[in-house]
Amino acid sequence: MRQVAILGVGQVPVREHWELSIRDLAVQAARAALEDAGLERADALYVGNMTGGTLNQQRQLGALVADFLGLWGIEAVKLEAACGSAGSTMRQGIIAVASGEREAVLAVGVEKMTETGGQNTTTALVGAADAEYEGIQGVTFVGLNALIMRRYMHEYGYEHVDFAPFPINAHANGAHNPNAMFRKPITRATYEKGRMVADPVSLFDASPIGDGAAALLLVPAEKAPDAVRVLGSAVATDTLAIHDRKDPLWLKAAEESAARAYRQAGVGPDDIDLFELHDAFSIMAALSLEACGFAEPGEGVRLGLEGEITPQGRIPICTMGGLKARGHPVGATGLYQLAEATLQLRGAAGAAQIDGARVALTQNIGGSGATIATHILGRTE
Amino acid sequence: MRQVAILGVGQVPVREHWELSIRDLAVQAARAALEDAGLERADALYVGNMTGGTLNQQRQLGALVADFLGLWGIEAVKLEAACGSAGSTMRQGIIAVASGEREAVLAVGVEKMTETGGQNTTTALVGAADAEYEGIQGVTFVGLNALIMRRYMHEYGYEHVDFAPFPINAHANGAHNPNAMFRKPITRATYEKGRMVADPVSLFDASPIGDGAAALLLVPAEKAPDAVRVLGSAVATDTLAIHDRKDPLWLKAAEESAARAYRQAGVGPDDIDLFELHDAFSIMAALSLEACGFAEPGEGVRLGLEGEITPQGRIPICTMGGLKARGHPVGATGLYQLAEATLQLRGAAGAAQIDGARVALTQNIGGSGATIATHILGRTE
Questions:
Q1: Does the N terminus or the C terminus of chain B have fewer Cβ atoms within 10 A?
Q2: What's the pLDDT score for residue B115?
């Protein structure tokens, strides 16, 4: 297997794009990635998306996007793993290039969540959970995360306000990202005033959904010696329903996929300069930090309280706003994370730049931890 | 890239399985494939499915199926390309093994179309087309195929009854397949009495939807010297909407993917002993035969009239019943085709056996030809 490099990055700002369809979003991001790479064509297209079948009535997004990119004939397919769809898409794109099967692969994540043809977004999102054992109880996806957060607070003795550093850091960082949906820092007072969505998940603990698309153009590293490299790539799974896990507070698929990615990259948590984690909910940020070796179980929240997750801290997270400030177009998120990490490693993250960033970790979570895609990217020089 | 072999085959009979959920269907087929291969585990799982997000409220089928197979932790993802989902799934499974990344991959196709939680199946299926340019006109997926069939009849001067050999052959062959939904031969008189669904597509020109799952266990060929080999594998795309094609009667993605697969396998149409084609509609059978080099444009129907598509003919098609008699659980179909071709090459097709079959072609079509997956399988000895 040969090494893979990221030659092009394309992003559509996360917004409520009432004037853009799912095809427009995907095509804009993919074109931007091609342009950034200085290429006219890709020879395969992998599209990550979660709700397009229901909300946009499209069940063949690979062909659709290839068609409107003018890349007629190329191999294309859509991949789905709930909110982990785009991370899983990156993974398959990497295998296609690493194997020697492809020379230039577009990995695109896209989600169109406004204008849903009368379909209910909350209902579509609970498809991330187990429909027959969780969804059927009437629990929403926010509700499932509320159960986990409540258990964590009980188990480790935290108060709600202890989670404040996660959204405060995300919104402070997002203010520097032109592609972020929200670019206004928040204070601890703002956090405390946030209304409850599903107790104890308040407004600022839950990421906003949105419309968006992000794309990367992948090539063999020997063809792009200066480009950011993929050092590690792994997807692991866990039980779909939370009640089937031995410990609902441990992201086993995060631990497992991170372990594989660390092994491939030959690095460990101490070598990571920034971590684009999946803060769909504040509790998920804490659990990711713990499962990836940055904190002991129950100590992820403490890392926030001690200021270690900010750009100046030991492990900067959500450096471009994370899911909370950049926004969470569910099936696109994993590729936004990878796009942002690539910009950081290029030194092209503008005011959000982490000085001297050389190795970045990204982690994209499907459901309450059932599919987790972990990637490690590195600078060459 | 190393060669890939098919070590295990598993199928659930296509039926209206009112007592089985989408997870049950997928798990049963996958377990059967593992058992057939004599293996306890696979190290990755690729699941093909089209409508599960809407009809079954599951948007993370990879993790769900891995979970209930007891394969906790393994990499898993769902792939979607409308009715071409399972062929595309096989393709990614092959790349994973051929690349050296994986040693034992389960490729599973599954669809659960009865009990749809109040959702409309016809609406879900039109997601195979372009929602904004085709679906919005109110056209159904059968309606789109009716437009193509009408045009073909007009262009080449055929009558409706000239298409009779396709369903007659399919139903005659399906009678020998225990996994087929319909096991009763039909006559020309039955065909002529079939009521119109969307003129000129009559009841026997359209395949029945159903519940089902089929699975293959893929390993490196060096580990299974006697197993059926994958000789060629390709996916190509075309415009999603029919009106965007220069010629609506030519399946460009079939021609292109077949050309790639022939090249990889080092064979041509004359070397093919049987062809499991995508007869979702009679017209698609004709167009597939033409695009893959078995007939000149406009002559696919003639091949049927001349008896060349039967088990005794020049190019036996739909040898286990095809989509029409086996049934068409949309996102599972591509893997049923591959499972059936594998059984034929093993000499294990029972009364449906094509004598001396050594090389088989399979072709799985998403939408009206927008994503087409073509595979060539071969016997070793």
A1: C
A2: 84
